[in-house]
Amino acid sequence: YFDSPSKQDRLKRSPKDIYSYPTLWTVQLMNNSINERKRLQQEEEQAKKDVEKIYEDNRFLIVQPFSHKASCFYGANSKWCTASKGNDYNFRRYTRDGRLYYIIDKEAAGNRSMEKMALHITNDGNATAWDQQDNNRGIDFMYERFAPIANILKKLVNGDDDYEKLKKAKEGNRAALKDRLSAEYFDSMD
To answer: How far is residue 162 from each of residues 26, 66, 120, 180, 186, measured CA to CA in Å?
Structure first.
């Protein structure tokens, strides 16, 4: 019933009109789909709260997900194990072992191989990048692919100085709280 464009138009024009539905079953189906849409919107809102937006402009978005739901939302349409809906084990493992970032090119939306890349920086500073199809790519490939924001990506990979990290942490930046400080005298604080 809902696949018919003419019937969809009729419902869009007057969804509250009980007479626009042919049967009680159709009313119930419509009610269920409305409830499902509300549930998905609430999940999306929660997922958007569980990330730190590292960078955003008209074309690019860099986020650091702090929950599995946020990882699934921003990693949608990828083959990353950290964004698989059935199991959060890999997400927990990667975030425990370092920092996970998703780099998204908004203009490449729909391009199933180049729209997004995942970047993982281990606690000891090793960085790895994956394309959307979960192919391990070199960091240089990522810099080339996202050339307009390569300097921002280099800062993520190389780390900022301790002063900037502490300043961000004081401001309440959640991502900064997970950063490691490089000076030896901060080891006890880490």
So the answer is: 60, 22, 20, 8, 9
